[in-house]
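Tokens in:
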């Protein structure tokens, strides 16, 4: 399978989708970027997509279309919308998908399950994506860091389809095929548990990690998520430099989990990307986050598996209240989360 000879559709042209589309187009692939924001589509068509950051400042000519103008049949389709928009996106994409078409999820969370329910597991490909990018304004994306993309079939098999996708995505980021897709996706939820906790405060990631209560709550949130993840996946994969297995219970838990969080914080101190994308959703864009596709999943799966998740449940509540405009992003949110979860403040 040669994807250079087949039109590729990318649905969701924000931080991830826009970055992928720009670099694939530059490499000679026939790509259409699809988005719901008219100003963004117009900016891309009129002046190209500008990407600043770790690879410099460049503008890439791209082809873009509004989601309302999307027509079939669709071949290889890359889905890059926020997780809570996946079901609605698949209602549109599903009927337009060609018989030999398929959907690759480049998203956070367990969206592969939603996609497979809509079009079948045989037409669904999963991925772990972790490079840092932010949609700044129409026609402008900032690339904060580079990370390897891991793609895989849902059943762990290695197929010509994933080999072709790897060949294409190598033009975007280092890309590898995995036979343990669910180990990556659940490992990312261990990371996400910590990321949502840190994003309840209007501060940089290193600042919250440097706070004693912030550190303890981040440790506990990821420890809860680790236990849930291990009830769903046999083994968890590293999330970039972040090791979800550092949050396994045992005598070395405190030292290992602190070291993992401190290493992440120290790396971000030297990065142009000082915040999680979650923080940007809440503070800058004032929009709904993916908390219901990540923290809520941890809580729900924990309930099914008999794993208590009080910190993740408290974070879920606080994030919902921030989204609704019922609370700000104050440092006192950490105290409230600790209280709701029944944790004592560290000395």
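Residues out:
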């Amino acid at each position: 399978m040669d994807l250079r000879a087949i039109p590729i559709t990318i649905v969701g042209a924000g931080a991830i989708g826009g970055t992928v589309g720009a670099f694939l187009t530059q490499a000679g692939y026939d790509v259409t970027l699809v988005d719901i924001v008219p100003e963004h589509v117009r900016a891309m068509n009129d002046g190209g997509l500008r990407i600043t950051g770790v690879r410099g400042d460049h503008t890439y000519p791209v082809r873009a279309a509004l989601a309302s103008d999307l027509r079939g049949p669709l071949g290889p389709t890359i889905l890059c919308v926020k997780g809570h928009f996946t079901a609605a996106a698949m209602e549109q994409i599903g009927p337009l998908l060609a018989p030999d078409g398929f959907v690759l999820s480049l998203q956070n969370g367990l969206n592969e399950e939603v996609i497979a329910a809509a079009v079948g597991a045989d037409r669904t490909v999963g991925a772990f994506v972790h490079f840092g990018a932010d949609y700044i304004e129409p026609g402008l994306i900032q690339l904060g860091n580079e990370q390897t993309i891991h793609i895989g079939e849902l059943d762990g098999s290695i197929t010509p389809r994933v080999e072709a996708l790897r060949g294409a995505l190598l033009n975007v980021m280092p890309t590898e095929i995995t036979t343990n897709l669910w180990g990556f996706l659940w490992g990312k939820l261990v990371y996400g548990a910590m990321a949502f906790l840190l994003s309840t405060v209007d501060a940089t990631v290193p600042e919250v990690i440097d706070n004693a209560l912030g550190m303890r709550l981040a440790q506990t949130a990821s420890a809860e998520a680790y236990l849930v993840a291990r009830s769903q996946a046999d083994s968890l994969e590293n999330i970039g430099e972040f090791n979800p297995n550092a949050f396994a219970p045992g005598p070395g838990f405190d030292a290992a989990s602190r070291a993992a969080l401190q290493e992440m914080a120290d790396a971000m101190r030297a990065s142009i990307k000082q915040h999680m994308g979650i923080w940007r959703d809440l503070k800058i864009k004032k929009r709904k986050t993916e908390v219901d596709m990540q923290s809520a999943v941890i809580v729900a799966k924990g309930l099914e598996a008999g794993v208590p998740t009080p910190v993740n449940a408290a974070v879920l509540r606080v994030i919902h209240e921030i989204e609704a405009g019922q609370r700000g992003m104050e440092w006192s949110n950490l105290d409230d989360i600790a209280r709701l979860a029944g944790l004592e403040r560290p000395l």
